[in-house]
Amino acid sequence: MSQDQKKPAASSKDQSELDPFEIDFLPQFEQGRGPRAPFVNEYGVTIGDHDYESDNSPLEQWTSDTNPEVMAGDQWVHPFKDVGFQSAENRELFEEGIKPQSGIFTHADKNVASVTAEATTSKKNDKAEA
Q: What is the enclosing helix (H) or strand (E) of 130?
């Protein structure tokens, strides 16, 4: 079924009230998430206001001595307003309750798990010469 043919999900919130990076979470995903409003993390950077250039941000003060680990962790992610929520998989999970498909990652046009024909031929030639 195409996106156009899908019925809009019943919404606990009018879509016009949603922030550009917020989605309409199912009730079970809204509980215990944290604050809806923007917050200031331990580095003095406001998270959730969409002003990504903050003077206090390590991104604005980056040097060769900056450890990238400083930008890891929940203190850098807003629990309701994050660009990652806009992916198809996250919207299906959080808005419709559809769990992501599991399985191994594969390229659509390449089988990266198999030995290439060139490598197989090379190994055969190596054995024949030995």
A: none
Between CA 127 and CA 104 the distance in angstroms is 33
81 SS3 class: strand
Helix (H, G, I), strand (E, B) or coil at 40: strand
Rg (CA), the chain: 23
In the numeric block, the tokens 């929520």 are attached to 85
Q: Which two tokens stand for residue 127?
A: 């054995």
Q: What are phi and psi of 74, to 5 degrees?
A: -65, -20
Phi, psi of 46 (to 5 degrees): -80, 125
Give residue-wise pLDDT tens across range 18-45: 888 889 999 999 999 988 899 999 888 8
Model-wide pTM > 0.70:
no
Residue 96, CA atoms < 13 Å, CB-side half-sphere: 12
Dist. CA 2–CA 15, nearest whole Å: 20
